[in-house]
Amino acid sequence: MIKSRPHSRARYRSLLQKAVRRGHVDLVTTASALMENEGENSWYTTRTAIITFEECWPLGAELIFNKKFHSKVAALIKVTRAAKCRDATGLGYLAHALSEGDTSVLNGSPEDQHIKIVAGAIKRPEDFWQWIAGREQSDRQAALIRNARRFRNEGLPRDRIVVRAAAYLALTGPIPPIKVMAPPEEVFPFWIAFDRHTVEGKLVLRDVARDLHIPLPQLEWTCFYFEGAKANAQIDSQWWQRYCQWRFTRVGLPAKEAHLLWGPARTQVVRALAQDSRHLQNELYRWKIANRLAIEALKQQAQMFIAHFGDIQRSQLELF
Fold it and tell me: What is the mean pLDDT of the chain?
């Protein structure tokens, strides 16, 4: 059994979201089974909703859970298989920065108004939801907005504003269709689980930044941009692109030159994390071998839930 230490939880939580982004369904299933075994059910439920709105916000209309853990795993598998659509994340992050007084997110274009409206949802949330409720909605819009409202107070402040941004996007424009992608062929790189939100990743990024004389914010952002945020496929997302361009400007690095910084830094980061990466991979593999039946049962339950999702959606099972 893996000890449930805080830094261990951080590694597996990071691993889960990276596996979702890159489309590795089997790894998501295994990590999910481990988290259930470790008593992470409450965190997993909340995080599944947040990841859905962050990585593929149109799937927010399909967040139908029952009280069983496998129903949340099914929702996350759907995000894993889908091409990522990150407009809610881009718009939400820009709005969050504006709400904290950073007006550099505004560029004088008509689209600035959208950022201002979503930022206003932070200070006047009830007014925002009343405005949403007072507008005509299709069934799909209503489903997504209902789920966004359900999870509006979950997670960190940036998570909450992403959820609000998804509701806003659903109401003010067409909801993009979901594109299901083929499984990725490349092997999952376990070192990417060690980002700046983990103890190991934070130390390595600090050391590499010092050794290469790179400003730490530039290294952290390029690591996320090129590796942490990498997806199996991505639908064109104008707000996500605008957010990324703003972040490059914010850290003082031209986007076209970012690969010149990340190239040599990546080599050192991967080398420095090699031992931690092997340990994490071996730890997960041993747990998988020892719990094959539980993992397979969870996989089958999730697949069954997905297969009958249409019936579940029509019957509108009581959530949780």
Answer: 93
Question: Residue 54's closest CA among 21, 32, 78, 23?
Answer: 21
> In angstroms, how far is the first alpha carbon of the chain from the final one?
28
Tell me how far apart the alpha carbons of residues 239 and 94 are, in angstroms, rounded to a whole number. Answer: 9
Digit-coded pLDDT (tens) for 163-208: 999 999 999 989 999 999 999 999 999 999 999 999 999 999 999 9
What local confidence, expressed as pLDDT, does residue 7 receive?
59
DSSP characters for 24-53? -HHHHHHHHHHHHHTT-HHHHHHHHHHHHH
Backbone angles phi, psi at 316, to 5 degrees: 50, 65
What pLDDT band is residue 6 in, cutting at 50, 70 and 90?
low
Banded pLDDT at 318 (limits 50, 70, 90): very low
Asked if residue 62 lies in contact with residue 180, where contact means CB atoms within 8 angstroms, the answer is: no
Q: CA triplet 12, 251, 263: central angle to 5 degrees?
A: 65
Under a CB-based contact definition with an 8 Å cutoff, are residues 20 and 55 in contact? yes
- Structure confidence at residue 308 (pLDDT): 82
For the chain, which residues make up each domain, given as ranges?
A: 6-84+190-314, 87-172
Give DSSP secondary structure letters for 57-98: GGGGGG----SSHHHHHHHHHHHHHBPBB-HHHHHHHHHHHH
Say which residue the tokens 């992050």 belong to. Answer: 93
Fill in the DSSP letter of residue 234.
B
Length of the chain in residues, anyone? 320
